[in-house]
Amino acid sequence: MKNYDFTRSNQNYAVNGWRVVNMHRSKNGRLYAVIERPLAKDYVVGRGFDTRDGRWAQGEYGYKTREKANNRAKYLSRDKKKT
After folding, report:
1. pTM for the complete prediction?
2. Strand, helix or coil at 83?
3. Residue 9 carries which DSSP code?
């Protein structure tokens, strides 16, 4: 498998060429990316986004608007209080 060139010139794109439109970082450093899928006409929230290779650990798919996906990514990036 070919590694994706996630250099400064490509920093707005994920491994498959989808565009990263927003990024949120939690206090513990985990990145949550909002990624546009033009052919599906929806957005993905990429949990655990890795800027070195443009991949993410887990994804939530099917958000119809950027706003909904961005709100979800913001929520996920909040550090929860320990109980």
Report:
1. 0.81
2. coil
3. G
Q: Which candidate, 9, 60, 53, places its Cα nearest to that of 34?
A: 60
Place of tokens 């990036």: 77
- Per the CB < 8 A criterion, the answer to whether 73 and 45 are in contact is yes
Pairwise CA distance, residues 46 & 14, whole Å: 10
Q: Rounded to whole angstroms, how far apart are CA atoms 13 and 16?
A: 8
pLDDT in tens, 12-35: 777 788 999 999 999 999 999 999
Nearest of 59, 58, 61, 55 to residue 42 by alpha carbon: 61
Residue with tokens 């010139």: 9
Distance CA 26, CA 15 (A): 22
